[in-house]
Design goal:
three-stranded antiparallel sheet, mainly alpha, five-stranded parallel sheet, about 1000 residues
């Protein structure tokens, strides 16, 4: 290689792999070439055997021809690189790269760091600063990001630590040169990325202090102290504490020295900002220790070629063995390989007193994390699964599914396209999870426990009592959770020796012989923190664990404890300080699984009365709180006496609908648990009223099976109470659940009973609602005369009550009925009346429905111009309408009407938008009608094949629901499309079937769509 060629050639590995020659970027080939060259560049000048390059390129299961393919890759790289034969040299059994130091950014980084050290040692700190600035400016991202593989990934982790060390050195030098406020922005960036790194935090505090921002500096200490206690159960180290104490004392040692003249800066290469991507991973433990074998095995499994297919790596082990910590640590190490996001979700498979997160609920959370709007998320599991897989196709995502109960809860969450990595943790090995690579996480070895004690307590304290440390680890069962709790206690008690704590632990184990191994060791360790509490806090700890949800706020805690929120918060904070509670966010507290199990073990016959009284107070509180939230969300809603006093714990005060909805969403798990508790305790009134208040939340989130199940429980409870008003309310909610699930026959029976109950009570409001529901159901089933009778009665009752909003809704149902029946003039009249009522009310959510109903009637009467006028108004309102099914229907009819008016471009646009919208969270009822409408438009346009597919899908959906009018229109559309495609025999059969249905429903041939 000539000097000219050498001078023009350069490789960059501090970020994505780059090769440059004469100012032009080299095309280096595919993934195998990149991994081979990247591995050689990481060890420039060293001979790497072919086996090492095979391991880097394929990780595991290399093909039989792997060695040959490596040689081919080297030959290809030599052709692509100028004078490549002199850059990649064959040397004995392998290859090595020969480059000058300035030809590789990695070696240049090392040279600059060494130069900085030398300049500092010779008393030239300004030159050291400049060298480090240039060194850090070489970084464009993680080492060889995008190349992947365990060999490269391990190097990336090591070099990232070198980058952070260089950054800390640079900030230290700049502080030594008298800088302060000018460092704050850069330091905040690093602290945000590495919040548990104490050196960076101390430097930020010092920079803030020197710029006159003492309060902010102290606030930084408080923030990191809370974080360390929350995440790791430890206090800040001596270095950070010394800076904090110096700031409190305004120590002269912290004052900035007089800065020397600023050197002329050397411009550093521009660093491109990474693209935004969601990351919901928990914090990685800064003092993560041990688990080298498991981590290496995990990274090896994960490092396989997920560019060709997604990988699943699953960790199993007992509770408290550190599965989650290991998975989170590995996920952070691998994050650079997955630029499109890293998502975490706790499936709560083994959370005491809680039901596991359903696949549908997990998919809802994951889709929202990726930015999918709630209104686009389907209600059914199949729809959510399909949307999830479609959304992540083409993305490189890392997914951490923590605390899984079984394979059925995991399968719907798995990606089907390549490019993703899924990490799963579970206490039991999920043997039915096909294609998963399993790693069992056992207790830590004695050597690993010794390292953990030294890391958390400090080498000096460990070295003073190594035998006691080993005994402490043994008594903790070598479980990471137990050992961390014990060492955290020692950190908070600096006068305690390790031997003293070991003796205490030994005493407790003798008193808890039944907890001598496994989880029992965790319980024995937890008892150390418990025994240090006073009696009031011990009682509170046991009672708080009775809460059925994942998170407890101060109001719920106050209800359980029978005190006021302020006193409850004081107790919660005490328990948080001793790590018996965790705090996921301000104002919320939660138990770790094993801590909750320990608290439950404290219950006994002697505590039974107190425990039951606490649960009854919590039931009363949640009933009061849900009533308060519902009054804000549904002003004017009829109040039903709860039979409880508000008591000492007031319900939260909600400033508007938004906060009330947020509270309901956060408390949903707890509320479901409270309904179950009320049933088991025989509190039937609470069962009925809590179900009534929770019904809207389950309906809105698409949890329809849970909605129906709770509705059945509420109806049974109301029957036991013998209170007809409560039975009427419960039947009403159950009827809605059955209707939304497409269980029309069951819904008719329920609504009929609800109507009969309302008649016996003389309850005109419930009677009107029941008649309206029956009218809608009979209409869907094709019983038009009966449907008309019910709707006319409903409208009459609503007018008598002055319930204009309910009347408008019933009028739209009446208009739809008339349109299906072929009575288009009457359909138009009902729709116009509904529009007038919507305008008078000033509420437009139902006006889109009424305008679309009017347009259907006008179109069926042949007045397409008027229909388009109505549809134009409807499309304008669609922008603020959250019902995608109604929006899709408006655009579907717009396509048909515009096509008949000769506006073909608009018709194509509207038809496409209708089909796009209907693919989101749309009820099957709407989907069938939209697909029939668009199919009819496409047939008129001549696209009979697509039209046939839409009609067939509509027929499948409508038939499964017994939605008879849309079954008939689907059959008619199929016949029309098949006839145009020359399939005359099939067409004739479908036409006969359609005609039979139309005739049975009394729809005249000349009055059909």
């Amino acid at each position: 290689m000539t000097d000219a060629e050498a001078g023009s050639l350069r490789f960059n590995v501090l970020g994505p792999l780059e090769g440059w020659a004469d100012g032009a970027r080299l095309r280096l080939g595919g993934l195998i070439q990149e991994r081979v060259l990247g591995t050689l560049l990481l060890e420039t000048g060293r001979v790497l055997p072919i086996g090492r390059l095979v391991e880097s390129a394929w990780a595991e299961d290399p093909p039989a021809t792997a060695s040959h393919q490596v040689r081919k890759a080297v030959a290809d790289l030599r052709r692509r690189i100028p004078a490549g034969g002199e850059v990649i040299v064959t040397d004995g059994p392998g290859y090595r790269v020969t480059l000058r130091q300035e030809q590789l950014d990695l070696t240049e980084f090392g040279m600059l760091v060494q130069a900085a050290r030398a300049a500092e040692g010779e008393g030239r700190p300004a030159e050291a600063v400049e060298a480090l600035r240039r060194a850090l400016g070489l970084w464009r991202g993680p080492i060889l990001s995008g190349a992947g593989g365990p060999v490269i990934e391990a190097a990336a982790t090591s070099f990232e630590e070198r980058r952070l060390a260089a950054a800390e050195h640079l900030f230290d030098l700049r502080l030594g040169l008298g800088e302060g406020g000018e460092l704050v922005v850069d330091l905040r960036d690093f602290v945000q990325s590495h919040p548990l790194r104490e050196t960076l935090r101390a430097q930020l505090m010092l920079a803030l202090y020197r710029s006159g921002r003492q309060a902010e500096a102290l606030e930084e200490y408080s923030r990191v102290r809370e974080l360390l206690v929350e995440e790791l159960g430890v206090d800040p180290g001596p270095g950070l504490t010394k800076v904090y104490e110096g700031i409190l004392r305004e120590s002269p040692e912290l004052a900035a020295p007089a800065p020397p003249p600023a050197p002329v800066p050397v411009p550093a290469p521009a660093v491109s900002a990474p693209a935004d991507a969601p990351c919901t991973l928990p914090y990685d433990l800064a003092d993560f220790t041990g688990r080298e074998r498991e981590l290496r095995e995990l990274l090896d499994c994960a490092g396989r070629d997920y560019a060709r297919h997604s990988r699943i790596v699953a960790l199993d082990g007992m509770g408290g063995s550190g599965k989650t910590s290991l998975a989170v640590h590995a996920a952070h190490s691998l994050a650079g390989d997955f630029p499109d996001g890293q998502l975490y979700i706790d499936l709560r498979g083994y959370t005491p007193g809680e039901q596991p997160v359903t696949p549908g609920g997990a998919l809802d959370s994951l889709l929202r994390a990726l930015g999918v709007p709630g209104e686009r998320i389907p209600e059914d599991l199949a729809g959510r699964t399909a949307l999830w897989r479609a959304t992540i196709t083409g993305r490189r995502l890392l997914l951490l599914l923590d605390n899984a109960a079984d394979a059925d809860g995991v399968r719907p969450l798995l990606p089907t396209a390549p490019g993703c990595l899924v990490l799963v943790t579970s206490r039991a090995r999920l043997v039915d999870l096909d294609s998963a690579q399993w790693i069992s996480v056992d207790v830590m070895s004695p050597e690993e426990c010794a390292k953990l004690v030294a890391e958390t307590l400090g080498e000096q304290r460990y070295a003073a009592e190594p035998e006691a440390a080993a005994e402490l680890a043994r008594l903790c069962g070598h479980l990471p959770l137990a050992l961390r709790i014990a060492t955290a206690r020692l950190r908070n008690r600096p006068r305690w020796t390790l031997r003293y704590l070991a003796d205490r632990l030994r005493d407790e184990a003798r008193r808890l012989d039944e907890l001598s191994s496994g989880q029992r060791s965790v319980a024995a360790t937890l008892r150390l923190s418990y025994q240090a509490l006073d009696q009031e806090c011990r009682t509170a700890f046991r009672i708080l664990a009775l809460h059925p949800g994942g998170e407890i706020d101060v109001h719920a805690a106050a209800a359980l404890l029978g005190t006021d929120p302020r006193d409850a918060e004081d107790i919660l904070e005490i328990l948080l300080d001793v790590h018996l509670l965790q705090q996921p966010e301000i104002g919320l507290y939660t138990f770790h699984d094993l801590v909750r199990s320990f608290a439950h073990s404290l219950r006994a016959a002697a505590t039974e009365d107190d425990d039951e009284a606490s649960v009854h107070r919590l039931l009363d509180y949640y009933l009061t709180a849900t009533e308060s939230a519902c009054q804000v969300m549904f002003p004017g809603r009829r109040r039903i006496p709860t039979g409880t006093d508000e008591g000492p714990v007031p319900a939260p005060r909600f400033d508007g609908r938004g906060p009330a909805e947020h509270w309901f969403a956060r408390e949903q798990g707890a509320l479901l648990g409270m309904v179950g508790l009320s049933r088991r305790l025989g509190r039937d009134r609470h069962t009925v009223l809590l179900t009534r208040n929770l019904a809207f939340q389950l309906s809105a989130r698409g949890q329809l099976e849970e909605f129906r199940s709770m509705g059945l429980e509420a109806v049974s409870a109301a029957r036991r109470l013998g209170e007809l008003p409560l039975l009427g309310v419960s039947l009403s909610n159950l009827g809605v659940a059955c209707w939304k699930l497409g269980r029309f026959t069951e819904a008719v029976e329920i609504a009929t009973e609800g109507r009969d109950v309302a008649e016996r009570l003389g309850d005109l409001q419930t009677l009107a609602h029941s008649e309206s529901t029956l009218g809608q159901l009979k209409s869907l089933l094709g019983n038009f005369p009966q449907a008309l009778s019910h709707l006319e009665k409903s409208i009459a009752h609503e007018r008598k009550l002055g319930a204009s909003r309910a009347e408008a809704e019933s009028l739209t149902l009446l208009s739809t009925l008339y349109e299906q029946w072929g009575r288009h003039e009457e359909a138009a009249a009902a729709a116009r009346r509904a529009i007038v009522l919507c305008d008078e009310l000033g509420r437009h959510e139902n006006k889109v429905v009424a305008l679309t109903d009017l347009a259907f009637a006008q179109a069926c009467l042949g007045d397409d111009e008027s229909a388009e006028v109505s549809l134009k108004q409807a499309r304008t309102l669609c922008e603020e309408n959250r019902d995608p099914g109604q929006v899709a229907l408006a655009f579907a009819l717009s396509a048909e009407v515009c096509h008949r008016l000769g506006r073909t471009e608009q018709a194509v646009e509207y038809g496409g938008r209708a089909l796009h919208t209907v693919s989101a969270n749309v009820s099957p009822l709407r989907r069938a009608k939209v697909e029939n409408t668009v199919g009819r438009y496409l047939s008129r346009r001549g696209d009979h094949t697509t039209a046939l597919g839409l009609h067939e899908r509509a027929h499948e959906v409508a038939s499964s629901l017994d939605f008879r009018i849309e079954v008939a229109y689907a059959l008619s559309g199929m016949a029309r499309a098949q006839a145009a495609l020359g399939r005359t025999e099939e067409a004739a059969g479908h036409e006969r079937s359609a005609e039979e249905l139309f005739t049975a429903m009394g729809v005249p041939a000349d009055r059909r769509r």
